[in-house]
């Protein structure tokens, strides 16, 4: 095979090769958090004698530094990967200092992004300032002066410090000066002031007090962190850190590169790095002791990992334990390779019935033998392909045979690029066959999701079924990875769509999630945006979190525990509090009520400070409507009922439609942004209500 030829010049044994590779990697690898924990916070690597014995049997050096384990390049990749899972989207708006000209359209984008950042900053500031306000919205007493269209004065007691900050004042001045700066071609000053204002807003986010609303807060606990923890005590420290950071849901990497981390009766082999230990059993108990949800995170159609092979002193020919035992399950690209060019993972053939039954047995084993709260399907797709370059995948034996039975054609002879010189009829025939082949592969993935959904609903209807998916356009996903998660959400096959919407700035992050969080609604299926913490500056993380909070998002997911250093843990603890009791997905009606109370407090604070202007004839009616919705949500939280939830949804929707009528705002950001944010937050409340009605 081709990969074997690449290794022909190697004269060292697999053990020595692995040892050289591991020691060539810096101690702070790509998966190592920016701030490594102290020795007191790190579990002894060989606390479990059985694990040490297994490592000896595998030929893994006993003094291997666990910090080097998680992620180092495969031997034949030179550190490059074309798999979307390894990519982070570049900044959506990259503003550099200097005197370079600012085009008309780029100037508009800079101004729009500044408006959005001001809006996000004010959202956090208002929430932080309103935390101590009463829940019931009220108009100021007779001795106070509520701002109306007839009386726009603020109460005498208002302190301008709570409604204005140096960063907001600088932003307002820049917005006022912006047209002149561009008209006079003062590009250097425009760029400098824009960057200064952005940094000032980031610096003045209220990171010293809580401002986050009640939400799903999930985190992926990766295999590398589990292995480094090494024992129940080490794992407990990770759960303590996540609880302190306010995390309420953990995605535990349970099946990775074909190896389960627990002793399985279905899989051919437990991960050698966890043999003698059952991390899944310990994780379930540790999560429940802290009132957190624990979801088993599974690699579905990715069967192995070259990087994992290097850790285990395996050659690149090793495709994982399941494919080694069942070579008929292997998927291939158009050139006959199980691993696409530039990638690190072999994939199964999703059309193979024996494979599908095996995966379903694994899922059943997990959800019946362990008290998990959820199941997450990852790599629920084909590997990344580029049809425009005729790089495609899915040519396993079972797939080729099944497609040939359906169409009479072996798909290996089809191509996405049809010869334009062929007669039109032949071109159309070949085009239709290629589309049929793509549809066939899409159906293999979707039908497996449906089978898993049926299994979960039958065996454990109380748990959450989620999928980790890409925030790519639907057309691109269907062509390149055959992942039709829109259909899964629309048909209610899954409970959560967890987006791997990894981006380097809030602008790009917003572009990735807006089509799915703002522009679409999937009834009772929730869409949870994901952030990747690796190398992400704290201000960017906070900005992205506030971006999704100003949208109708019901929560977020962070990748991964390995990057939760002490600084991030402290900031998350301060701004969203330690997780104690409420798990939003377990108590969706109570969550909806708490989120609405946060809105009521914000409106109270704005009224008290004269930042809301009401038409006199509408003021009392608006306050009554707002409080009536709050009372209905509170009653629903205390007496959950699906029929009542439907009626409350109608109330929320009516308020959502009327928000802004007879109301104006005296704030720095645009009224459109603030009113849009309130509508989004009401929409998120409705989504929790719809979710609860289906549970």
Automatic annotation (TrEMBL):
It comes from the Bacteria. Residues 215-513 form the Glycosyl hydrolase-like domain. Residues 58-92 are annotated as: Disordered. Residues 73-85 have a biased composition (Basic and acidic residues). Keywords: Signal. The keyword Signal applies. Gene3D superfamilies: Glycosidases. PANTHER family: GLYCOSYL HYDROLASE DIGH. This is Glycosyl hydrolase-like 10 domain-containing protein. It comes from Leptolyngbya iicbica LK.
